[in-house]
Write a structure and sequence with these properties.
Strand content: 5-15%
Radius of gyration: 32 Å
Distance between the termini: 113 Å
Number of domains: 4
Number of helices: 26
Shape: flat
Helix content: 25-40%
Strand order of the largest sheet: 7-8-9-10-16
């Protein structure tokens, strides 16, 4: 018997297991060097086949199979930025939602599949992955909804670009659900087959040479050229043709398919002699890549020009976004808030404000100075987040309106940016978050819904438009607000406001007071017209609701509206409450922090920090929209808070009185001490 063979046979399972482990460890390429790897690489298409860039029938390259040959795409696709349409990823703190806006129906509804309170799951409204990509693909990095229904359904493998996604079709694709029923998200399988999937495009963040064009990325998505978007956006080649121009029943296998499907022509100067392409890759994304999706801009007449605003103090010091917002290959980017835990298991406490500047002896990471806050009572650290004093614009009499990349499409050339661009958002608003006061951005939802058993459920905006198109009659170039509040002052109206003699005077000859009177009259008439028009629309929407006792309502501007006898009636409901999420940037230095100059910046009865007024905004032309002070929104009792502020009025005098009293007490003690010394001296002399 050959004992050596028996021993080898016994060891084979362990040898095989060890070999498999070694293979698993080296499956994805790594250099472990701080220097960047020079990426002259072959291109692969959605099927995993190598691409010949010189071929006239070359396919667009697929990041899944090109980048994924060396990098763990499966781990990356579950990262925070790529799970936007799924209930995965970090959902522990509310963030900025996708806001679905529709000027035709006066809709601005916050969407998220993460379960954030105040948002709505797109699938529950019948908004499919296809809808999400077309609506928000301009600021998606790919993946998530872009990978199609198979990814959203929990598939472990992403659907390949160009292949039809595996998804169950609705029971009857041709039968639309009624407006009040829970809509079943349709899967336009024919469109997915033509467009291909929109995979995670690594180069949208990791391109170093600035050749990547988000504008081209957006244009390709609008053209439904999902699979072609990475190639065109990186400038590897020219893409001609639009999937959006093809009918649903287009046969991609037909003889003329190649002539009608988008055509990819790779630029020869981007291709080497051995058919490799150079990818100028940077490991750590440039701040400009972050800014494309994470820019916030203040708007309004009261806002100073952009060039007068100071940059975040961290950026001025030479830091970058990724110095704090770090991640590994799994792309679970650290969000930097207190209490955050990383799915990787690595501690991330020191990447928060307090962890970096307060909780570390001698300072924080990257040489951050230790915040000493001399003279600041410790209670502030329990009641306030660091951002409450250091982040965003200084509090004013009212928060300013803002535009964000995700909500308003910043980063793309347009002529319509301004405070009238929906959705209407404001900042800063100081609210309680985790027991501490922190600055928030805020948006008020606006949507049509069904009220049943005290609960309002939003309706699909497209189905609402189909039901109300003839009633609302929103003309091209107009919007919902203008359509439902359109009024024209007659001569009798002007005479009633200005008198018969002044009613016929030309507008440019009217006084300021007279113009104000006409504006006030117009606003009152517009509000009345809105209530009547809204009442008519609610009656029409009632026909589209199921006969289960559901009542049609419209939510906007902090109020809900139902049909009434003489016009729509407003009522309070939790569904009309604003959605708010914390923010941290831009950070102001210590000397410019709120309260650095005086305690009275906050602890005065008229301090903007607590007395600032927040007015609900939305598409409803409400003449008297709901208003709240910062104090009320933060949950403070007005009487107790005012009493506390009054106590600060004599705080300085009390301090002087206290120090003076201590001085007098010290003198008295010193006098008695002197007398005691003299008495002891006399006693000693007697001895």
């Amino acid at each position: 018997m050959n004992w050596r063979l028996l021993a080898m046979a016994a060891l084979l399972p362990w040898i095989g297991r060890a070999a498999w482990a070694a293979t698993a460890e080296t499956r994805f390429s790594q250099t472990f060097s701080r220097s960047g790897y020079v990426h002259w690489i072959e291109l692969y298409d959605a099927k995993g086949d190598m691409i010949d860039p010189a071929s006239p029938d070359a396919a667009p390259y697929s990041p899944v199979h090109t980048c994924g040959r060396c990098h763990d795409y499966e781990a990356i696709r579950h990262g925070y930025h790529f799970s936007t349409g799924q209930a995965s990823g970090d959902s522990s703190r509310r963030g900025e939602p996708w806001v679905w806006t529709d000027d035709r129906t006066g809709t601005q509804i916050p969407l998220s599949a993460r379960g954030w309170p105040g948002t709505y799951d797109p699938a529950g409204l019948g908004i499919s992955e296809w809808d999400l990509v077309l609506k928000f693909g301009r600021h998606l990095a790919g993946g998530g909804p872009g990978e199609g229904p198979s990814a959203a359904a929990g598939s472990d493998q992403p659907a390949a670009a160009g292949d039809p996604p595996a998804a169950a079709a609705p029971k009857d694709p041709q039968a639309p659900a009624k407006a009040g029923e829970k809509a079943e998200a349709k899967t336009p399988a024919a469109r997915w087959r033509l467009s291909g999937q929109l995979p995670i495009d690594c180069m949208i963040c990791h391109s170093k040479d600035r050749s990547y064009s988000p504008e081209v990325w957006s244009d390709q998505i609008a053209s439904q050229n999902f699979a072609w978007a990475p190639t065109a956006a990186l400038g590897l080649g020219r893409v001609e043709g639009k999937v959006s121009a093809l009918p649903d029943d287009f046969d991609a296998a037909s003889a003329d398919a190649k002539a009608k499907l988008p055509k990819t022509t790779y630029f020869p100067h981007r291709v080497s002699a051995d058919k490799k392409v150079f990818f100028d890759v940077v490991r750590t994304p440039d701040d400009r890549a972050c800014y494309y999706c994470h820019t916030t801009r203040f708007t309004g007449a009261e806002v100073a020009p952009q060039w007068t605003h100071d940059e975040d103090v961290h950026l001025r010091a030479g830091m970058t976004c990724s110095d704090c917002h770090r991640n590994g290959i799994e792309h679970q980017t650290v969000r930097g808030f207190e209490g955050e835990t990383s799915p990787s298991g690595q501690p991330v406490h020191t990447l928060s404000c307090r962890g970096c500047h307060v909780d570390n002896d001698g300072g924080g990471r990257l040489g951050a100075p230790r915040a000493v806050h001399k003279g600041l009572p410790l209670v502030h650290f329990d009641r306030l987040a660091c951002t409450a004093c250091h982040s965003g614009p200084r509090p004013g009499a009212k928060p300013v309106q803002i535009l964000t990349s995700m909500a308003h499409g910043l980063g793309l050339p347009a002529h319509h940016y301004g405070e009238k661009l929906p959705p209407a958002m404001v900042a800063p608003v100081y609210l309680q978050a985790g027991g501490a006061l922190a600055p928030h951005r805020m948006v008020w939802p606006a949507f049509w819904g069904a009220l049943k058993d005290g609960k309002i459920s939003p309706l699909n905006p497209d189905k609402v438009y189909d039901a109300l198109r003839r009633t609302l009659r929103v003309r091209r170039g107009s919007n919902f607000t203008e359509a439902v509040s359109e009024v024209k002052l007659t001569a009798a109206d002007k005479a009633k406001a200005l008198g018969q003699e002044r009613a016929g005077v030309a507008e440019n000859e009217l006084t300021g007071d007279e113009k104000a009177k006409l504006e006030e009259l117009t606003a009152a008439m517009a509000a009345d017209a809105f209530r009547k028009k809204l009442n008519e629309a609610l009656g029409e929407l009632k026909k589209a609701l199921p006969a289960d006792g559901s009542e049609p309502v419209y939510v906007a501007g902090g109020r809900a509206y139902r049909a009434g006898a003489d016009g729509a009636e407003a009522f309070d409901h939790g569904a009309a409450e604003p959605y708010a999420w914390r923010f941290a940037h831009d950070v102001r230095p210590a000397r410019d922090a709120t309260g650095a100059a005086s305690c009275f910046e906050c602890h005065a009865d008229d301090s903007n920090y607590f007395a600032g007024v927040v007015t609900a905004l939305g598409p409803a032309p409400d003449g008297q929209p709901p208003e709240s002070t910062m104090r009320q929104l933060a949950g403070y009792d007005p009487t107790m808070h005012k009493a506390w502020n009054l106590s600060f009025q004599g705080r300085t005098a009390f301090k002087f009185f206290g120090f003076a009293s201590l001085g007098v007490l010290a003198l008295v003690l010193l006098a008695y001490g002197a007398l005691a010394v003299m008495a002891i001296a006399r006693f000693v002399r007697r001895l």
